[in-house]
Write the C-alpha cells for this entry.
Amino acid sequence: MSSDLNPKVPQAMDLAALRAKLAQENGKRFWQSLEELSETKEYREFLENEFPHDPAKDEPGMNRRDVLKLAAASAALAGLSACTKLPTQRIVPYVKAPEEIVAGKPLFYATSMPLAGVAAGLLVESHMGRPTKIEGNPEHPGSLGGTDVFAQAATLGMYDPDRSQTVVLEGRISSWAAFLTAMGNEKAAMSADGSGLRILTDTVTSPTLAAQTSAILKNLPAAKWHQYEPCGRDNSREGARLAFGKPVNTVYRMDQADVIVSLDADFVSCGPGHVRYAREFASRRVIEGKNANLNRLYVIESMPSSTGAVADHRKPLRAGDIEAFTRELAAAAGVAGANSAAASSKVPSEWTRAVAKDLAAHRGASLVIAGEEQPPAVHALAHAMNAALGNVGKTVYYTDPLEANPVNEMESLRELVTDINAGKVDLLFMLGGNNPVYDAPVDFDFGPALLKVKTRVHSGLYYDETAELCHWHVPAAHFLESWGDSRAFDGTVGVIQPLIQPLYDGHTAHEVVGVLAGDAGKSGHDIVQDYWKSVRPERDKAFAAFWERSLHDGVMAGTALPAISVALRGDIAQQVQNTPGEQLQIAFRPDPTIFDGRFANNGWLQELPKPNTKLTWDNAAMLSPATAQHLGFVDGDYVKLQLAGHETKAGVVIVPGHADNGVTLHLGYGRRRAGSVGTGPGFNANFIRTSNAPSIATGLKIEKTGDRYYFAVTQHQYVIDQDGHQVEKEGVEAARRDLIRIATLEEFQKDPNFAKDQREESSKGLTLYPGFKSEGYAWGLAVDLNKCVGCNACVVACQAENNIPVVGKEQVMKGRAMHWIRVDTYFRGGIDNPETYYEPVLCMHCENAPCEVVCPVGATVHSPEGLNEMVYNRCVGTRYCSNNCPYKVRRFNFLLYSDYTTPSLYGVRNPNVTVRSRGVMEKCTYCVQRINAAKITSEVENREVRDGEIVTACQGACPAEAILFGNINDPNSRVAKWKAQSRNYHLLDDLNTRPRTTYLARVLNPNPEIQG
Amino acid sequence: MQIFHHSTNTISRVSIYGAVFILALLGGVLYAIELSPIYTRVNEAREQPVPFSHKHHAGELGIDCRYCHTSVEKSSFAGLPPTQTCMTCHSQIWTNAPMLEPVRASYRDDKSIAWTRVNALPDFVYFDHSIHVSKGIGCTTCHGQVAEMPLTWKANTLYMEWCLDCHRAPEKYVREKSKVFDPGYVTPSNQLELGAKLVKEYKIHSLTNCSTCHR
C-alpha cells in the first residue's frame, strides 16, 4: 500500500463545531460526510481532483522519459504486425442443434433464488446455455419484476472459481459414487431406528425437501432434523407464538397502508418479500400532476437503513430501547396494559402520541411492522397494535408458516450441540450451505463439538470452515444449476430449474439427503418432479401440462398460502419486559451486501458500497457521533469489543444518525476460509455473539487498542461540487446548487414548480454551441427520487450487464471503483439525526457534453440519438474527459482490472459488451447494446421501437420502479411524461450541459403535528 | 584545418532528408502489406477439415443459403450448420465417400467438426446479419461470389473503412429484398438510381455513429 493511503491519524473531529456550523445554516445545507463538514484535506482532494492519487507514484522507477521510450518501441513493434497474417480461428457448430437455441439470441428461463428459505422469482438470461444476467420475474409475487443485490450478483456466485469442485473425503479427492457407497454402508451399519443420525439444514420451505426429510424421520424415528440460519426469523416466529400461540407467517399489503410505522424493520431491503414491499411502498409515493395519495412512514431504528432514509419521520433509538417505545406506542394506540413503568424509551411522549393519533386516524389503513432483530415481545405488540387498529385483513394478513417445520432455530441448534456433546450423534449431515463452525453462536463452541461426531458430512458451495472439519464434503450445486422448489413470502411455490449443468461435481440437497431417503443416485429433477406428481391432483398429460406451465411461469399457480384467522392472546402486554439498562449495547445485523457471510466470496457484493455508510470490503463497529465523542474514538480506531467474556476486534466507523450508546456490527465478515475474495476482509462478529442474545446484547465493553484500521469508504469520493466555483465571489447562498431538491407535500401543492430554478431557466438559451437537434429517437432517462429506496440493485445490475470489473479494496481507497452508476447519499440537518436522501447518479448524456470537446482523439462522441458514446479502441487514456466531467461519472482502468485469465469467469460476461482493458476510460452507455438490439428487432419488423421495449439494466433491476428510460421525442412515452412533470430538474443546470438524465424531486409527507 | 571533407555536407544532408523519405516509404510499404491479402487473407482459399464446396452446393445444386445458415434473418449470427444438417442429405447420398468420413464421424461420436473460420470480425465489433439482409444487402455483397468458390475464401477485408464505404452510401450496394439470397446476382447498370429508390423505400438509415458497431 503506498504511503499516501495511510493518512495521518485524523484529529478527533470537533463535533460541537460541526453542530454549530450546521445550526448556522438553519439545517438547510445538504452534506455528504463528516469529512466534508470538517473540510478535511482528503475530502478537498477528492472534491477538487478527479484522480487524487497520482498514478505515477504507483510504479516507482518509471519516469516520463521511460514511458516515451516504451511508447516509441511499442509503436515500432505495432508496425510489425503487418509482417504476419491474421490469425487462424476455429468455428465449431453443434452436432445436433438444440431446437430452441438461435445462436446470437438470448433465452430467458424462470427460476427462483432461495435466501434464508424465502424464494425470489427470477428470469435468467442465457446465452447459448450460459447464464449471464438476472432479471426479476414479473409473474412471481415476491418479485413483480424487481430484484435485489443478492439476486443480481448470483451469476458471479455461480461462476466463482473458488467454489469447491470435487467430492472430498478427509481432505483427499473422492467421487460421488464413492460417497454413495460409503453412505450405503453407513446406513446399513446404523441402528434400525436411526438414533445417532442428525440432519442439519438451513430454513427449509421447499416442499420436496421437507417431504424427503419427513420420509427419513418416519423410517428412522430416532433420527432428528435440525434447522439453523444465522440470520433467521426466530424472533418473528416467537413473536407470533406469543401473540397467537402458534407460529404464523405475516404478509403485509404495503400499498394499502396510508400510515406505516417501522419498529427497526428495514422492510425495503431485508426479510421475506422485501422486493415486493419496496415496489408496493414506492407505488404509494407516486405523484402525478398535483394529485398525490402519499403514504406516511415513521421509522424508529438504531442503525440508519434504507427504510429509515425514505421515512417521513425517523427517530434513532438504541435497538434495546425500541421495546420500551413499542410499549408506549401500543398503550397510546389502545392496546390494553401495554405500558409499564419499568423502562422509558426517552422518546418525547408528544411524538409518540402524534404517531398513535395518526395511526388511529387511519384505522384499517395503517400498519405497524416489527424488525426481525427485535425481541418477540415487540413482534407480539406489533400484532396487537395491528389488531387494535383494525388492520388485520386489510394491510396485513396471516398465513400458515412458510417453513415445513417451523422451529426455534437457535434452540434447534442448541439441542444438536447438546446431543453431540452427550455422544449421541454418530452421523451428521449438514446441508444447504450451512457453515455453523463459522456462524454458530460462540457459546456453542461448535467447532470442537463437531469433532466428536463419528461421521461428518457437509454439503456446500465452498470448502469452508465447516467443510474442513468434516469427513465428507460434497460440492453443492448452485441454485442456477439445480432442480428444486421454494416458497415465496406469501407461500407461493416457485420452481427452481437449472440454467446450466453443474460446472463442478455439484449435487443438490435433494440428492444428498436422498441418500438417506432411499433416493440414492436419483437425479434432482426426478426427485422434485416425482414429489409433485405424488401430491398434485393432475395425472399424466394434465400433470405434464401443469409442470410445463410451472416451469414457464416460474411459479406453481394457486399455491399461495390462504389467509387464516388468528386469535390474539389476551396477555401479550403482560410479558416480561426487557430492561436493557444504560450500559453500552451492541446490535448484530445481517450485512446489507454479503448477508450472513454466504456471499463473502462475491467481489461484486464486497465492493458494493453499503447503503448510508458507503463502506466497502469491510464491516465495522458503527456508532453515533456523540457516542464516539464520549468514548474518544475517531474513524478508523481499531478497538477491542468485549461481551460476556468473549472478545473480537474491529475498526470504528462513525455513522451520523446512529442511535447513541449503541454499536452496530454486521455479520458475515472475518471469514477464515471463504475463498480468495472473502477470506480476510472485516471482523468476525460471531466471536462475541451468544445464543442468548443473538441480535441485541447489552454490557459491551469497548476499548482502543491503539492501532488504526483503514476502511475503503466511497462516501466522499466522486463528490459533485455543490458549492460551485462562485462561492468566493458571491457567497455561499448565491452559488449553491441544489443537487437534491425536496419539498413537503404542502409546499409542493402550494408551488408545484419548486424544483425549477429561475436562474437556470433564464440562462437556457445562452450557448455558443450549435443547437442540438435530434430527429427520430432521442434517448433519455429519469429517476424519481420519491421512489428510490437506495437498495443498490441498480449498481450490481449494471455491473453484471456491462462487464464492470472488481478492483479491490486498495484501489477503492484511491477512488478507482468502476461502478457506472452510484447511489449518492446526501444528509440534511444535524449530525445526530440527519434526513437522508438518495440520488442514483449515472452518465447524464449531456447534449452539450463537456467531456467530448476535450478529447484529443475523438474517443468520446455524440450520437444523433443523444448518446454520449465511448469508443474504447480510440481511447488513449488522457483522462481529460473525466477531468472535465462535473458529474464525475467517468471511470478509468488504471490497471488491468478485468480478469483475462480465469476461464470460469469468461462465462459470466455479457457477450454483447466489450471487456475493457487497461488504460481505457469507460462509463454508462444507457445500455447501448440493449438499445441496438431493440432497434434492430423493430427495423426487421418494420416498425418503431415501442415505448418500454428498451429497459436499461438499472431500470430492470429496480424494485421500486424509480428509473425510467425511453424516447423523449415521443410525447406519449412514459419517460417524456415523467420529464414533463413540474418536479423534473437537472443536476448542475447552471453549466448548461443539458443532461438527458433528469431527476424528479422528492416530496415528503411529514405529519404537521410533529416538528422535526 | 578541416577534419571533414566538403562532400560530408552533401552526404549528411542527403541522408537526413533521405531518412524521412525512407521512413515514409517503409511506413507506406507496411500499410500496403496490411491492406494486401498477405495480411488480410482476402482471396486465400482456406483449408477445411472437410473440403466443403459452396460452388457445388450453392452454385450447381442451387441450395438456398438459408438451408444451412438458418438464423441469418433472425439473429446477429448467420448460423453455422450442425453436422445434422449435412447428414440430412449425406445419410442418403455419398454415404461411403471417404471425403465425408469426418462428417460421419462427427455424427457418430457426437463430436463437433472444427471448421476454419473464414470471415471473422474483431471482438470489439458487433455486427448483425439480420438487419443487413432485411434491408436489402445481399449475401454476395460482402461474401463475394460464394457460389463460385470450391473452397471458401474471404472476399473483402472486412475493415472498418470497407464497412463505412457502404454505411456512408448504401445506395451503391442495396438491392431488392427478393434478390438478397440470389448467389448469381449481378449489379444492374442503374444501381445508383435503383439504390436511391430502395434506400427510401426500405427506410435505410446510414448509421455511422460509433455505437452502431462498437459498445
About this structure: DSSP finds ten helices and one strand in chain B. Strands of chain B lie at 115-116. Chain B has three domains: 7-35, 54-80+117-212, 82-114. Chain B touches chain A through 48 residues (CB under 8 Å).
